[in-house]
UniProtKB/TrEMBL annotation:
Native source organism of the sequence: Gemella sanguinis
Keywords, in A-Z order: Signal
Short name of any one Pfam family annotated for the protein: DUF6612
InterPro entries in alphabetical order: DUF6612
Signal peptide: 1-22
Protein name listed in UniProt: Lipoprotein
Length: 272
């Protein structure tokens, strides 16, 4: 009987040990799988990778639009009467590195009056300009190819804009939409004023209107490719104003990018 009892206890101990070992093995395997899985990216991670990706861009196509509309808060009670001032800058261009060439178009509009300026730079670094539909004219330029390329590259790689984005990265909502990451923000945080101002410093007086104003509303969105962390679109709309002012200004901005590191420039007609 004693031997039978020992045999039963031995069997029970063996079963318990097997269960414990199996449990430990499963737990270890689960922990190993969890450790091997990559951690999901944060908005800060995506902004950092985007900042690195645009450093390596040598050729691309882009479009850029920036508009502002200033109007009276209460036109009926304003001592100056109804005020409506519209202005904007639309740009598009191509930068090619092999062979080197640049083509840009810029249209400035103020209260219905527009002026279009086009520039073309060939692989010999010769500059041609055109106003509206006038013939192309060869113009002297002392800037090197690199200096001219840097001006266009700021459309996609502007270190001050990137720094401003990094400062607000934690406030951006990160979503995955198909093949893209989408980072967005809606609110009135004053920290985003620098992002708006650095969107296009070349817009001159349009951007300067943002100084010393408050953000009344803002919707911002940045779309980035998952595969390369290259940008495809940056856009925003916002309303700003001063507390003591009877005016408000609505801004919209949008910039798109395509054919990154593959873009080629087609020589415009009319240039010999």
């Amino acid at each position: 009987m004693y031997k039978s009892l020992r045999k039963i206890l031995l069997i029970i101990s063996t079963v318990i040990l097997s269960v414990v070992l199996a449990s430990c093995g499963t737990k270890s395997q689960t922990e190993s799988q969890q450790e091997s899985q990559p951690k999901p990216l944060t908005s800060q991670d995506v902004i950092e990778k985007y900042s690195e990706a645009v450093k390596n861009v040598n050729s691309f196509k882009y479009t850029s639009d920036f508009t502002s509309k200033t109007a009276s808060k209460n036109p009926e009670s304003s001592p100056l009467g109804p005020i409506n001032l519209d202005s904007g800058i639309s740009k598009d261009g191509v930068l090619s590195s092999e062979p080197f060439s640049i083509l840009t178009n810029q249209t400035m509009t103020i209260t219905g009056t527009s002026l279009k300026i086009s520039n073309y730079i060939n692989e010999s670094n010769e500059l041609y300009t055109r106003a509206g539909n006038e013939p192309w004219k060869k113009t002297n330029s002392k800037k090197t190819q690199s200096e001219k390329a840097d001006v266009v590259k700021k459309e996609i790689y502007n270190d001050k804009f990137l720094d401003a984005l990094k400062n607000v990265a934690g406030d951006l909502k990160l979503e995955e939409q198909g093949e893209n990451y989408v980072l967005s923000y809606s609110g009135t945080d004053a920290k985003f004023m620098e992002v708006l101002q650095q969107f296009d410093r070349g817009a001159g007086s349009v951007v300067n209107k943002l100084a010393d104003t408050n953000i009344l509303s803002l919707n911002f969105k940045l779309t980035i490719k998952k595969s390369s962390f290259e940008p495809t679109e940056i856009q925003f709309d916002c309303e700003t104003g001063k507390n003591e002012s009877s005016l408000t200004t609505k801004f919209t901005g949008k910039r798109t990018f395509s054919e990154i590191n593959t873009a080629k420039v087609t020589k415009p007609e009319g240039i010999q």
